Amino acid sequence: MVAELRVQRTTRKTTKKTIALVPTMGALHEGHASLIRLARRRADRVIVSIFVNPAQFAPNEDFRLYPRTFAADLAALAALNVDLVWAPAVETMYPGDFATKIVPEGPAQAGLEDAFRPHFFAGVATVVAKLLIQCAPDIAVFGEKDYQQLKVIARLARDLDLKSRIVGAPIVRERDGLARSSRNVYLSPRERAAAPALCRVLKECAAKIAAGQPINDVLAEGREAIADAGFALDYLEARHADTLAPAASTMDGPIRLLVAARIGNTRLIDNVGV
Question: Would you say 79 and 41 are in contact if contact means Cβ atoms under 8 Å apart?
């Protein structure tokens, strides 16, 4: 199957057309569509991968429950004029004798997602490296909603001298501010009504920090507001937008506010720049 992908990819490349890859786990929504449209603007041909990666799920997480809508996804990709869909089986990506794993450091050890999902970035880095090698795109597009992941992948491509350029795409939001996510389908009506509080608090915190209020005080207020909205907070942090190092003031460089919290059984993440 990988050999067939390479034949297709080589056929497209011999026409001297640039190629973009948009990796996904399926359950496509408007956020994914925005990545594909950006890829179309940046390259002549677009490949979209669909692979629910078991290596980035812990035993207590929702791998089996993760939404799978393959037929609907294919229809959506056809409507978006995607040139090639790469949807490998688990056995293709991880054969029975698979014995290699990439364990990233740097932004993968920032004390954010890695503190709560210690297995996660090794699974992401390994599968993304395989996808970049298999598809050999000129660019690969990832959403900024998974901000730490974006930074990890950018460092991965740089450190391993991969030819693909990593491009970040802005977060796509619902009208009430909630970041688009495949996991939003898990929200009950009551939880969905409360969920936009994450974005609202992030924007309020960003405005206060930009106005010169002390970061620690602003974050303390933000954490309290998120809890009051019905969330169980994992973190609300101010980090350097490039390195993800903790930021004590705006003098530390460009700042990104990042949040992760649970409402009911659903874990949501979001971020905004200051």
Answer: no
Question: Do 72 and 195 share a domain, yes or no?
Answer: no
Cα–Cα dist 6/245, whole Å = 39
- What is this structure's pTM? 0.92
CATH number of domain containing 268: 3.30.1300.10
The per-residue pLDDT for range 205-264, each reduced to its tens digit, is: 999 999 999 999 999 999 999 999 999 999 999 999 999 999 999 998 899 999 999 999
- Domain end: 169, 204, 221, which one? 169
Question: Are 116 and 220 contained in the same domain?
Answer: no
Same-domain pairing of 70 and 150:
yes
The CA distance from 39 to 58, in Å, is 31
Work out the mean pLDDT of the chain and round it to a whole number.
95
φ/ψ of residue 238, rounded to 5 = -105, 120
**CA gap 33, 31 in Å, rounded:** 5
- Per-residue pLDDT, averaged over 58-75, amounts to 89
- Determine the 3-state secondary structure of 86 from DSSP: strand
Active site residues: 32
The residues near 121 (Cβ < 8 Å, ≥ 6 apart) are 104, 108, 113, 114, 148, 149, 152
